[in-house]
Specification:
Elements: E1 4-7, E2 10-12, E3 18-24, E4 33-39, E5 46-51, E6 57-59, E7 67-72, E8 77-82, E9 91-98, E10 108-111, E11 115-119
Length: 120
């Protein structure tokens, strides 16, 4: 059974930084596409950053240059470094994974429970 468990969310002032982590129980030998998505109440979930098994990354325009996604296949860990945070970055952030070509439109089938990020 695949499990994704996020940590590291919290409250921060505008301009600050946060680091999100995701512990994954996925068989990393198969190196799935992994990503971070976010959702605010009443809005659709938005994938903001993805990374394939070889470390190739894709970012949504809204976070490009501000967020950095990385993964450690040996430790089964996915990380999102977020800098220069804005109030509009406030959302529930989810760790997700899927198979196939890796970008922001990948069919992500595994999801964590989410971690809240609040920027004021």
């Amino acid at each position: 059974d695949v499990q994704l468990v996020e940590s590291g969310g919290g409250s921060v002032q505008a301009g600050g930084s946060l680091r999100l982590s995701c512990a994954a129980s996925i068989d990393t030998i198969r190196r799935p596409c992994m990503a971070w998505a976010r959702q605010t109440p009443g809005q659709e979930r938005e994938v903001v950053a993805s990374i394939d098994g070889d470390g190739r990354t894709t970012y949504a325009d809204a976070v490009k240059g501000l967020f950095t996604i990385s993964r450690d296949n040996a430790k089964n860990t996915l990380v999102l470094e977020m800098h220069s945070l804005k109030p509009e970055d406030t959302a529930m952030y989810y760790c997700t994974a899927g198979w196939g070509y890796c970008d922001l439109q990948t069919d992500f089938i595994y999801w964590g429970q989410g971690t809240q990020v609040t920027v004021s």
